[in-house]
Amino acid sequence: MSKLTSNDYLMLAGSFHGMHAITAQLSPIPPARPPPLSTANPATTLQTFPVHATGIEVLESSHFRIQCFQTQTGVKFLLFTEPQQPNVDTMIKKIYELYADYVMKNPFYTVEMPIRCEKFDRGLDGFVKVRG
Amino acid sequence: MVLYSFYIFDRHTECIYSRRWTPARPTSSSSKSAARPQSGASIASNNGDVVAAVRKGMSHSDDEKLVFGLVFSLRNLVTKLGGADDTFLSYRTGEYKLHYYETPTRMKFVMLTDTKVINLRQYLHQIWANLYVEYVVKNPLAPVEHPGGIGVANELFERGLEAFITAVLPV
Questions:
Q1: Distance to chain B for A109, nearest Cα, Å
Q2: Residue A93 in contact with residue A67, Cβ under 8 Å?
Q3: If pLDDT is split at 50, 70 and 90, which confidence band does B60 have?
Q4: Whole-prediction pTM value?
Q5: Is the pLDDT reported for residue B30 higher than 50?
Q6: Of B54, B66, B92, which is closest to A58 when you measure between CB atoms?
Q7: Of B153, B146, B151, nearest in space to B14 by CA
Q8: With pLDDT > 70 as the criterion, what percentage of chain A qualifies?
Q9: What is the DSSP string of A75-107?
Q10: Cβ contacts (< 8 Å) between A80 and chain B: which residues?
Q11: DSSP per residue, A55-67
């Protein structure tokens, strides 16, 4: 992976947001509804809750793979891996847990600001090193 | 395997061939469909479980432009991140998967399928080598460029594509 300036990363991130939205819009089929709960009455409001198409989840190129995970609140996690890396899905969920624990529960962190939490950095480093 | 659509774009960013197997949306009154030799035929066995898409007010040609813009930006993103020798292969969402193949002459082949398909890059390459080159490029009556898709959707190419899809593509 080539090293880019932070301005380039901002530009790529911005265009990725747009592309993510377009991929959701291009979906040729309506999104699958989650299976209804067996105990719930099928006529309940759960069924009429709108389901949105997801955008890019995995992008593959010949040199790397991007796994994208979007939370319910619209935060996107991008994980760049080798093309052969297994279990990226669970890894990114684990990183989401680290984010929830060390960033969102940090009282000094203001939301939607760059993350500067030492504990999150250390947790992420430790998590990745164990896998690597 | 379920196929949703297939597009060919030339190096002038124009969609010279497009084909879709999902039912047309009710509002898609494409005014260009008369000018462009498109095939409205559909493989009935493929779209049995596919319902009409939810988007409204988007015509077929809008889709083509969106797809082109998207693969163009994704290709640029990939080359910027991975270096000049890196190529964009495919992406997957929760609903579908897009496969991409680009020839050295910057022609782009794009196919939308369901999510469980392996990468179709080599099959797209075969479509280019065995069908497009044979039936379109080597056709003496076809123009060199294909403005508006003239000369691409000829009978041999259509039939070859149909046979390729049913016979060669992995089930």
A1: 30
A2: no
A3: confident
A4: 0.80
A5: no
A6: B92
A7: B146
A8: 86
A9: -EEEEEE-TT---HHHHHHHHHHHHIIIIIT-T
A10: 81
A11: -EEEEEESS-EEE
Beta strands B15-20 and B88-93: pairing type?
unpaired
Instruction: Provide the CATH topology of domain B3-23+58-168.
Output: Beta-Lactamase (3.30.450)
Q: How much is the average pLDDT of A54-79?
A: 92
Section B79-88 average pLDDT? 90
Q: What is the DSSP letter of A12?
A: H
For A84, residues 6+ apart whose C-beta sits below 8 A from its C-beta are none
Interchain pair A60, B81: CB under 8 A = no
**Predicted complex ipTM:** 0.82
Q: How far is CA A79 from CA A3, A7, A9, A92, B161, in A?
A: 16, 19, 14, 7, 37
Residue B53 has pLDDT above 80, yes or no: no
Q: Which residues contact B162 (CB under 8 A, 6 or more apart)?
A: B43
Q: What is the dihedral of CA B141, B146, B150, B152, to 10 degrees?
A: 80
Give the chain B residue nearest A30 (alpha carbons). Answer: B53
Q: How far apart are CA B74 and CA A99, in angstroms?
A: 27
Query: Tokens 């760049």 correspond to what residue?
Result: A80
Closest to B70 (Cβ–Cβ): which among A2, A23, A80?
A23
